[in-house]
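S.,

As promised, the 2-acetamido-2-deoxy-beta-D-glucopyranose run. Input:
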Amino acid sequence: MRPSIPLLTSLFSAVILAEDAVHKTKVVILGAGLTGVTAAKALALERNIADFIIVEALPEVGGRLKPTSIGGYPIEIGANWVQGLGTNPIWALAQKYNVTNAFSDWENIDYFDGGGYDFDGKLGEAFDRYEEQAIVNATKISDLRQERGQVDLNFRAGLNLAGWVAKTPYEKTAEYFEFDWEYAEPPVQSSFIQNINSFIYNFDGFGNSSNNFVFDKRGFRMIAQGQADEIPNLAEKILYNETVTTIAYSKDGVIVTTADNTTIEADFALCTFSIGVLQNTDVTFEPGLPDWKKDAIANFHMATYMKIFVQFPSKFWNDTEFSVYADPDERGYYAVWQSFDVEKFYPGSNLLMVTLTSEQAYQAELQTEQEVIDACMAVLRTMYGAGIPSPIEIVIPRWTLDPLFRGTFTNWGAGATVEQQNAIRAPLPDPDMPNPQSQRLFFAGEGTSRKYFGYLQGAYYEGRLASAVIADCAENECLTSEKTAYSKREILGEKEGLEKRAYVGGGLRSRHFA
Ligand SMILES: Cc1cc2nc3c(=O)[nH]c(=O)nc-3n(C[C@H](O)[C@H](O)[C@H](O)COP(=O)(O)OP(=O)(O)OC[C@H]3O[C@@H](n4cnc5c(N)ncnc54)[C@H](O)[C@@H]3O)c2cc1C
Ligand SMILES: *[C@@H]1O[C@H](CO)[C@@H](O)[C@H](O)[C@H]1NC(C)=O
Ligand SMILES: *[C@@H]1O[C@H](CO)[C@@H](O)[C@H](O)[C@H]1NC(C)=O
Ligand SMILES: *[C@@H]1O[C@H](CO)[C@@H](O)[C@H](O)[C@H]1NC(C)=O
Ligand SMILES: *[C@@H]1O[C@H](CO)[C@@H](O)[C@H](O)[C@H]1NC(C)=O
Ligand SMILES: *[C@@H]1O[C@H](CO)[C@@H](O)[C@H](O)[C@H]1NC(C)=O
Ligand SMILES: *[C@@H]1O[C@H](CO)[C@@H](O)[C@H](O)[C@H]1NC(C)=O
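Predicted complex:
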């Protein structure tokens, strides 16, 4: 709670200010994204721990759940899909808070290439071959490698073993849509086994492999806001507009300092900042993070998934949901266009969205608005002809440049191990036996989720896990970090281990037929 507060709470704030903004609490939660809010709600309502404070740099909860608008239409520059319906907890939250959404039909595609509309269907053919052969074969190979305990490979190598070698612009584009457009990095940089598993956990694991697109005027952030609003006395427990600069930890507790010199002293802290933030120097840890944790953080990838929204004075495309463009020269260049101007989303909106990932996103983030518009228009003119109108409005997110995020979500990099991911989550100062009772600083976020890294469900499950582990540590005893990693999951509704699965085949486009 900061200055400029309504009357009813001003007495409380005066006390805080008089004490020169020093707060003392049992648990401080750093970050009010879905992980932090979910952890806070579980502490309050499931563990009956009321003595906690949430610290957030932004003036609101939600983090990477980030609504804005274009031409009066609500859009999401962050998370946008509920990916996997069925028993996905995010699907339950979306329904609980009545978040508007509709089925996103990844099969409903028009194909384009350097000559415009892809009349002879080369691109569609490449898509079918990737889905019906390459990814089916790759999944079997990945499962077999796990059964045999063979080392992981990069995804490019996995595809190669599956008989898929992308040579033509069509094959490269099909692969881009199926892989990069989901994981935001190219196959060669990505783990083979973990990304195959991710596909299955997120899309098939919840029993319904459909995925729905959210478009709600209150924003997808309602799944965070709704949970936050259930926390009793939330206003007294959350400090907005406070950017953490230093996290000092010892076996006695944690002292957090913010940019305006507010300090929070706590017995326990939960850091939910993104792996991108941890990879940078925006936050100082005292003492510095141990080498085993630094290695692990460095070896994971904070990928970038950049959704650019463009509104036109009129609609010059037809009613398909997706238009995929195979650039003759550069793989994935402005390849995936999505129309909001369809009956189930925003008919009459004249609104398109194009997604850039990885290097193309980094480059575009550094460009001016006009340069991005020019790049969009050059591709759209190739697709639809020279006569199309210029845009009237554009929204260009720049996630990688934002010191509160430093990218969009975690991709499991080639060569990163399960042990390293456990090491990112492992608490400090001393995660090793014999004395787990010295744990004070905990870590959680989408990036610490073994099965759901990169997704909202990862943030949700990791927030719940962290709250249970911290509550145990505060009330009873702390588990060794090895046990902390997974033993609590079953009771939290998340099963660990590779379930036996009947793989039904198909790539992204055909997930909902599974
Ligand atoms: C473009 C994009 C598309 C995505 N698409 C999907 C999707 O379709 N489906 C899906 O399931 N997931 C998607 N995701 C991933 C999803 O958004 C994340 O997994 C999830 O929101 C992460 O939540 P979190 O709480 O772990 O982290 P965050 O949301 O990053 O929360 C961390 C919080 O810490 C705050 N913070 C950071 N540094 C500081 C500091 N120094 N001081 C104080 N506060 C600080 C931040 O402001 C933030 O609020 C997408 C993400 C992006 C960005
Ligand atoms: C946080 O800052 C915003 C401006 O960015 C302001 O509108 C809001 O009142 C502030 N909130 C608090 C709690 O200080
Ligand atoms: C849910 O949202 C829809 C559309 O936004 C609205 O018509 C409906 O009344 C809402 N239902 C509830 C229970 O809030
Ligand atoms: C996938 O495997 C099948 C049989 O196992 C094989 O016939 C097919 O050629 C393979 N696909 C590719 C793309 O190599
Ligand atoms: C998946 O869930 C959606 C939304 O509830 C539903 O419309 C669809 O029929 C389900 N699909 C399957 C295969 O159960
Ligand atoms: C914070 O405190 C330090 C040292 O005590 C001081 O140098 C700095 O100016 C203070 N910053 C603010 C924003 O008050
Ligand atoms: C979609 O638009 C293209 C040209 O942009 C056109 O050639 C094609 O026939 C259209 N498809 C449908 C189904 O209308």
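Residues 122-148 form the longest helix (27 residues). The chain is about 35% helix and 20% strand.

- D.
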